[in-house]
Amino acid sequence: MSALLSFQNVWLEYGDKVVLERVELAIAERSFVSIVGPSGAGKSSFLRLALGQERPTRGKILLDGTPLPGECGPDRGVVFQRYSVFPHLTALRNVMFERECVGAPLTARLFGADRRRARDEAAAMLAEVGLGDALDLYPAQLSGGMQQRLAIAQALIARPRVLLLDEPFGALDPGIRQDMHRLILKLWEEHALTVLMVTHDISEAFNLGTRVLTFDKRRVDPHAPHRFGATAVYDLHLTRKRREAIVEAQQEVLRLTESVITGKEESL
Ligand SMILES: Nc1ncnc2c1ncn2[C@@H]1O[C@H](COP(=O)(O)OP(=O)(O)OP(=O)(O)O)[C@@H](O)[C@H]1O
Hints:
By secondary structure, this protein is of the alpha/beta class. The protein has three domains: 1-75 and 160-237, 3-Layer(aba) Sandwich (Rossmann fold), CATH 3.40.50.300; 88-159, no CATH class; 239-268. It has seven helices and ten strands. The protein has helices spanning 43-51, 91-103, 112-128, 144-156, 174-190, 202-208, 240-267; strands at 3-14, 17-28, 32-36, 58-63, 66-67, 76-79, 162-166, 194-198, 211-217, 230-237. α2 packs across α3 (112-128) and α2 (91-103) packs parallel to α4. The radius of gyration is 20 Å and the shape is globular. It binds adenosine-5'-triphosphate (ATP). Residues 14, 17, 19, 37, 39-45 line the site of adenosine-5'-triphosphate. Keywords: Acyltransferase, ATP-binding, Cell membrane, Membrane, Nucleotide-binding, Transferase, Translocase, Transport. Residues 5-242 form the ABC transporter domain.
């Protein structure tokens, strides 16, 4: 498999604060990369670099072998934990908006056949994420899970090759999270996406990822914590079998923990 995105000796610094250092990664096309690590390890900064929102202080980022353009392009979509959608637009208009901006960059309004085409495309995308019945609802009228479905539809309407997810399911209840996991895996396959997902949930990372990266600092100066940056200290490529074995082991640990807790409760 060829590398779609490569990070070559990438550093990110703010003044004298080193956030990331020596990041050296080749991300294969159609992989699902989960990114974990302690708070402040630079995971979101890494996503912003991949998005083109942030430029590396040193090093190179290549997309398909050519330097990443200096701004976010349609080839990369992003979903954040919250607030990815426009609150004053209906679900349909939220998703149509991208088409309108591309079709009419000055006014962001399409007319006639162009508008109908954008509307149909947006409605189909919303149906694909399970929001076919919610086209005319505003984000405030949608549950947290539905809002994230909307944010995903909004990111995918531009047909990106790379989807960047920054803790997209972090604010959702466990049951809803599982539905979202099924959805994102389906979309990953059907849209032939390459996904980079930051999460704090280790089982989510292993459940979804074909590769799990852990960002952390290799070296620490206790007198100057800002002196050294983080990098990918662990890089685990997962086969389907290995991933299933890890998820099964995690579920067994959960089952055991639950039975210990229940046992204690019964003996009280
Ligand atoms: N614009 C900025 N200016 C200065 N420092 C910044 C800026 N953006 C991020 N940082 C710093 O970079 C470090 C990494 O932040 P980042 O949000 O990437 O970490 P993270 O691993 O995603 O954290 P979390 O898991 O808590 O979301 C933090 O110390 C943060 O304060």
